[in-house]
């Protein structure tokens, strides 16, 4: 906690200050836009960007994570709260903050129970598919503000402004850095300008709306943004606690997943160490702070953290500076914030989530493992078809399903002796000699409940194929653990072989596995021996 | 399908006939009792024991499985349907049958989609805890009929009859076989008599009630049992389809789990082969048949199948004979079935589920793996506290949680050279030599999304502990698979080491893993080499 502050050196300050300023400039339109995605007044997006990152700076462990509103979590908030209260109502705001409290509580509890390993419940392809599906849903939801009306109708001036902004932003993303460098700007500055393009486009849009009087022509703007810091919010709906438990679990899980994947990829770049249990506490506390600010669930954002990182952030002080600047912006006159044109904000959201349409994972998975590629599609389709909330459960089910499905097809090799040597190899890959009375099987997987049945079946199949075998040797060189379920399966196999007069032997058992087996009855009951190597087993069992 | 019939030999007939008769005698009180557990008229329990086992005999693959009513599935039926309809109402019966249809449909669908591997979603300790928790809940629910009134009150004659029956049944279970053998009966006969004890106790109770006129004193009996075969039932409640989907999934899952664990343990005894996808179809069809019979969800039962097996069943013909005998019992006068005393039936249920209180798994797990023992307790507590329906989800979460938690702590060994040899071993277990410039790590787990983060972190930790290392060799002798998530983690590790000027090498990569890696970019981008053995790597990287 605050270790970074105790070791703070002055040399780190310039980087933190520049990152603090850049992220603050990015945060104003982004925070407001993500508040709109969550179905809330734009100013709550800025509220969510002040206290939560400060609290995260105290409890979190990532040096460059930027905590605040994030597209997918805002989408989930809208999906969940939208079922419980009418959009725009006071209850809606209360429930959004309450959802942050429940999610934060879940995260804190998981952190105290040291459940950080839960971040491993999503496979990478499933997470990628989930992200892409969410991006499509979010972009789809922004078409109406972008065009000023529902499809297929549109409102001319709004659509022109919105689509023009999309075009500008896409061009900025693809060409601005190159252009600026060609004009003599240095690479880091050019890249920073590109990152801030959304802010420039929003300001440009604002000026355009004012200059051309587009508001009078029906282009919507954000509307009055109250001045001043967020008030302490303690409003809660006592009727809704129970209804918020399950959504709070899901939102907490997603907050953790998204934040960890962002923090990990950044930590790797600087060889920093993350402590997942501390991260849970940091994110939990940040969400409680968001509730107290009257905002909505927040998390670490990949795209914003990458900007923070690229702009030179060295410690969480950068986030504290961002928060201070945003607080100052709220204390200053906020009249101009009321004039931000909605189609332009929608354009920034759409272009931002287009950046989440990452197909590299799919491409790699398609070449490397077709099953993972299918899981990617199923996960994305789950979000699009069933919604983001059910999509999380679909994702967990797919990750676990892939895992169990793979486990149910363990690799087991029949071994034979390489002629004239002490070495035994897979007879399918090497020309190796076997004896009909001895069947040597190498089990290439840790034994656990997910595969013990399949291993048992495979052994029976091999025994059927080797009817003369009097001895079965299981070569355990690749087995690093055997759980209780697999221990029972081995005992049953032993009893069954015993009845049939076939010896069951183990060879090349690893130290930790052997230590564990000594605490069971298996070795005692074993209808055979434990050999140091398959070579010795083969010689002794002549 | 029906392969057993095509190869039927006359020699198998005596076993099948004797098993058919024994199970039929067992089925009458048991079927009626489990119908009561499900909250349904007793006769439906017999209906559930006629058509479903015949249909299973056609589609299933187990030779000795006995499909019909089963305590846990009946308990789930009561828990689910009890929330939707008042007990004893017509709607209740309709929904119970409809639940069988939905569960059957789920099972059929899973079978056609070849999802038989789903049986591996429960670890053995979790399944055992779930079973024990369910047994306690079922026994608790039978206290009222056993004592004739709610605790702490009781109805004297009922309680005397009920507790007396419990005592008799417990004594029969523990001593009858021994006693009969002492009287000169042969072992198999004595065991069979013990298995049939519940039926003798029920008949004895019936006679006692009649002889002493206990019915007039308030002892409840089953009441009129309609004569004749079940009518074709097509009644459904169109309003409840949606509400039945999720429960149907859970019930289908539990049906499959229970039936598979029974069938597997029997198949192992005779070295028979089960096809889990065919089992899904067999159980699904049996449940559709149960719906058409106007009954409720059915499954294979461990205890009944063990009787079937012990009584000599060779093929599913035994179950067909049982079904035929039960059908004959329904066509014959059924007046006497109305007189079965409820306290005695409750006693048979209680003693039957006491047999499910199997603590051997817990005992083994406690010694062998404390985490598995905790999962046992949590699973049992989940059923008792949250109910059997939520208990299934708790069980899945616990199994998966244990799996991911274990995966998050992979075993990784630092290797050193055994002086003067070509062998490298874990330096914590052997006195082996290392060089500061070379760090050799053996990864003792398949790499997948559940552990790739932890492996990455562990490697970084080791590198921090070996600051002079210029080359890192990952010894992959125990790695049999690398999924897409882990492939990305390895690529990121490679990039990170590349930036730091540390070489990343692989050694002893298995054939199938290498084949797979060749389809990725990793080998191409690798900041190092792939060596046949760590010995070669060590010599080349001097």
UniProtKB/TrEMBL annotation, chains A, B:
Task: Give one Pfam hit by family name.
Answer: STAS
Annotated STAS domain ranges read 428-541
Location of this chain's protein in the cell: Membrane
One Gene Ontology BP term is: transmembrane transport
| Record has Nucleus as a keyword | no
Kindly list the residue ranges recorded as spanning the membrane.
12-28, 34-59, 66-85, 91-113, 125-142, 154-172, 193-213, 244-268, 280-300, 306-329, 336-357, 377-405
Query: Could you tell me which CDD domains the record lists for this protein?
Result: STAS_SulP_like_sulfate_transporter
- Mind telling me which PROSITE patterns this protein's record contains? STAS
Query: Which GO CC annotations does the UniProt entry carry?
Result: membrane
Reply yes or no: does the keyword Transmembrane helix apply.
Answer: yes
UniProt keywords (A-Z) are: Membrane, Transmembrane, Transmembrane helix
Q: Which Gene3D superfamilies match?
A: STAS domain
Membrane protein topology class: Multi-pass membrane protein
Write down the superkingdom of origin: Bacteria
Fetch the InterPro entries from UniProt.
SLC26A/SulP_dom (IPR011547), SLC26A/SulP_fam (IPR001902), STAS_dom (IPR002645), STAS_dom_sf (IPR036513)
Question: Know the name of this protein?
Answer: Sulfate permease
Name the gene: sulP
């Amino acid at each position: 906690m605050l270790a970074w502050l105790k070791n703070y050196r002055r040399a780190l300050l310039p980087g933190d200050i520049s990152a603090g300023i850049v992220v603050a400039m990015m945060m104003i339109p982004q925070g407001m836009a993500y508040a709109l995605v969550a179905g809330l007044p734009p100013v709550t997006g800025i509220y969510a960007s002040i206290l939560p990152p400060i609290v995260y700076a105290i409890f979190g462990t990532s040096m460059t994570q930027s905590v605040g509103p994030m597209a997918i979590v805002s989408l989930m908030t809208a999906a969940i709260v939208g079922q419980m209260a009418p959009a725009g109502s006071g209850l809606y705001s209360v429930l959004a903050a309450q959802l942050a409290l429940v999610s934060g509580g879940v995260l804190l509890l998981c952190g105290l129970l040291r459940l950080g390993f839960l971040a491993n419940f999503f496979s990478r392809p499933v997470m990628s598919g989930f992200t892409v599906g969410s991006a499509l849903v979010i972009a789809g939801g922004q078409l109406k503000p972008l065009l000023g009306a529902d499809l297929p109708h549109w409102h001319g001036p709004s659509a022109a402004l919105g689509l023009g902004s999309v075009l500008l932003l896409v061009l900025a993303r693809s060409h601005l850095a190159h252009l600026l460098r060609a004009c003599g700007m240095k690479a880091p500055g050019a890249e920073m300008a590109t990152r801030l393009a959304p802010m420039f486009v929003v300001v440009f849009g604002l000026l355009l709306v004012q200059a051309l009087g587009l508001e009078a022509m029906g282009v919507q703007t954000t509307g009055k943004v109250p001045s001043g810091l967020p008030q302490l919010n303690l409003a809660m709906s006592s009727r809704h606690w129970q209804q918020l438990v399950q959504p709070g679990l899901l939102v907490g899980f997603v907050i953790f997943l998204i934040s960890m994947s962002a923090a990990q990829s950044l930590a790797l770049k600087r060889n920093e160490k993350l402590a997942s249990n501390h991260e849970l506490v940091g994110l939990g506390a940040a969400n409680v702070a968001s509730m107290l600010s009257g905002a909505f669930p927040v998390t670490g954002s990949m795209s914003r953290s990458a900007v923070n990182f690229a702009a030179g952030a060295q410690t969480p002080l950068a986030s504290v500076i961002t928060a201070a600047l945003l607080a100052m912006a709220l204390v200053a006159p906020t009249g101009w914030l009321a004039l931000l044109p909605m189609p332009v904000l929608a354009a920034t959201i759409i272009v931002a989530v287009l950046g989440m349409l990452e197909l590299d994972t799919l491409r790699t998975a398609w070449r490397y493992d077709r099953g993972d590629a299918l899981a990617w599609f199923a996960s994305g389709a789950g979000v699009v078809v069933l919604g983001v909330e059910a999509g999380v459960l679909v994702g967990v089910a797919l990750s676990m399903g892939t895992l169990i499905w793979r486990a149910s097809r363990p690799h087991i090799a029949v071994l034979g002796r390489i002629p004239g040597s002490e070495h035994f190899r897979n007879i399918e890959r090497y020309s190796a000699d076997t004896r009909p009375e001895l069947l040597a099987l190498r089990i290439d997987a840790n034994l656990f409940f997910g595969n013990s049945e399949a291993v048992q079946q495979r052994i029976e199949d091999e025994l059927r194929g080797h009817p003369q075998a009097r001895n079965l040797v299981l070569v355990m060189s690749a087995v690093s653990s055997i759980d209780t379920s697999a221990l029972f399966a081995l005992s049953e196999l032993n009893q069954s072989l015993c009845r049939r007069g076939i010896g069951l032997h183990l060879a090349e058992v690893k130290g930790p596995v052997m230590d564990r087996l000594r605490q069971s009855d298996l070795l005692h009951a074993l209808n055979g021996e434990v050999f140091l190597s398959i070579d010795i087993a083969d010689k002794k069992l002549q």
